[in-house]
From TrEMBL:
<dbReference type="InterPro" id="IPR016032">
    <property type="entry name" value="Sig_transdc_resp-reg_C-effctor"/>
</dbReference>
<dbReference type="Pfam" id="PF00196">
    <property type="entry name" value="GerE"/>
</dbReference>
<dbReference type="InterPro" id="IPR000792">
    <property type="entry name" value="Tscrpt_reg_LuxR_C"/>
</dbReference>
<dbReference type="InterPro" id="IPR036388">
    <property type="entry name" value="WH-like_DNA-bd_sf"/>
</dbReference>
<dbReference type="GO" id="GO:0003677">
    <property type="term" value="F:DNA binding"/>
</dbReference>
<protein>
    <submittedName>
        <fullName>LuxR family transcriptional regulator</fullName>
    </submittedName>
</protein>
<feature type="transmembrane region" description="Helical">
    <location>
        <begin position="44"/>
        <end position="65"/>
    </location>
</feature>
<feature type="transmembrane region" description="Helical">
    <location>
        <begin position="12"/>
        <end position="32"/>
    </location>
</feature>
<keyword id="KW-0472">Membrane</keyword>
<keyword id="KW-0812">Transmembrane</keyword>
<dbReference type="GO" id="GO:0006355">
    <property type="term" value="P:regulation of DNA-templated transcription"/>
</dbReference>
<keyword id="KW-1133">Transmembrane helix</keyword>
<feature type="domain" description="HTH luxR-type">
    <location>
        <begin position="98"/>
        <end position="155"/>
    </location>
</feature>
């Protein structure tokens, strides 16, 4: 769920909490005013209003707990996303170091991983498309893969393997 949508959900919950709190205050005030008037049939009316007010208060408490959980979940997801980005960057650097890629090959390899086509890479780097194709061939040879899809699969397999290790540790 995008952060903006989560923020809207949190804001909506906050508005509901405020509305329910105001309703509860109204009913509590109404009960107090009715108690001062006193009539036999009024007691049933007061009991119903008191139950409704208690229900609203319970709803406010429940929504406050839900809002807090939602805020904590969003913070946790943002932390996890930052960690995943950091792990991916470390993984990329590890493989690039292991393969002995030059700085220009690293740039090209990173753009390949991002899904950028050779012509666009050449344009962004200010080089000829043939130069980029040659760099791609060197990258694939150093990584011992046959092309873009295999290069990407090396990273995905490693990320999934790390993710499974972390999942297994958490489950144990």
């Amino acid at each position: 769920m995008p952060v903006l949508t989560q923020e809207r959900r949190a804001a909506t919950l906050a508005v509901i909490i405020l509305f329910q709190a105001l309703c509860a205050l109204f009913f509590i005030g109404d009960v107090i005013v009715d108690l001062q008037g006193g009539d036999g049939l009024v007691e049933l009316h007061l009991a119903i209003e008191a139950c409704v007010a208690l229900g609203l208060v319970a709803g406010v408490v429940f929504l406050m707990v839900e809002l807090r959980i939602l805020i904590q979940r969003v913070a946790s997801m943002e932390t996890g996303l930052r960690a995943a980005r950091g792990e991916m960057a470390q993984l990329v650097d590890h493989f690039f170091d292991q393969w002995g890629l030059t700085p220009s090959e690293r740039d090209v390899a990173l753009m390949i991983l991002k899904g950028i086509e050779n012509d666009a890479i050449a344009e962004m780097r200010g080089t000829a498309p043939g130069t980029v194709r040659a760099q791609c061939a060197k990258i694939y040879a150093k990584a011992q893969v046959d092309g873009r899809s295999q290069l990407l699969s090396v990273f995905l397999e490693e990320l999934f393997a790390q993710g499974m290790e972390q999942f297994e540790k958490a489950a144990a």
